[in-house]
Write a structure and sequence with these properties.
Length: about 190
């Protein structure tokens, strides 16, 4: 056997088990982010209404009221981080905003299972995705990335404006399945 072959064999005998131990330890390590528990599907107007209101509450906490352009505390803080070119703060705030948006999308997914609401909720999900695109664009601007997309253009490019208006158009599909006089959501100025 040559000296080179002995060196390779030694490396395999010493380094190989270390690699296997490290791989075994990291493969079984729990994720830092908890896996969200899927919400049960809405099967009635009442269940849809709870999910609908929860989705809009998450949106309002994340980005504010799209109808009035009144930003949330989080979105206003993110806008300030963009102005300050503070990428670190922007990333932290974007993470919080995206957590809210993802929570909202889970509620939308639940609401979408009530058949009359499916078309409107499909559009609302697109709105949430567009807000995620806008948030990512704001982070890029806060980092000072060359060629960063304008956040409003990112929202529009992701179909947010079309989806917002299409959602209200699709909402009419609920029609007769909607009980008259349904109450407004408790925490946001909208009715399911």
């Amino acid at each position: 056997m040559t000296a080179l072959a002995n060196t390779r064999r030694w490396r395999l005998c010493v380094i190989g088990p270390i690699i296997l131990v490290v791989a075994a330890c990291t493969a079984g390590a729990p994720s830092q982010e908890p896996t969200p528990t899927p919400l049960p599907a809405a099967s009635s107007f009442a269940e849809y209404a709870v999910a609908f209101c929860s989705a809009f509450e998450a949106m309002f906490r994340a980005v504010g009221n799209p109808d009035t352009a009144a930003g949330s505390a989080l979105s206003k803080a993110l806008d300030q981080a963009v102005t300050d070119l503070d990428g670190t703060t922007a990333e932290r705030l974007a993470s919080e905003i995206n957590r809210e948006l993802e929570s909202g999308r889970q509620h939308v997914s639940r609401a979408r299972e009530w058949p009359p609401a499916a078309p409107a909720m499909a559009q609302l999900d697109r709105v949430f995705v567009a807000f995620e695109a806008m948030t990512a664009a704001k982070v890029a601007k806060a980092r000072g990335e060359p060629g960063a997309v304008d956040p409003q253009a990112a929202f529009e490019g992701a179909g947010g404006v079309e989806a917002w208006f299409a959602m209200f158009e699709a909402y009419r599909a609920i029609g007769a399945a909607h009980p008259g006089g349904a109450p407004r959501c408790d925490n946001v100025p909208i009715s399911p």
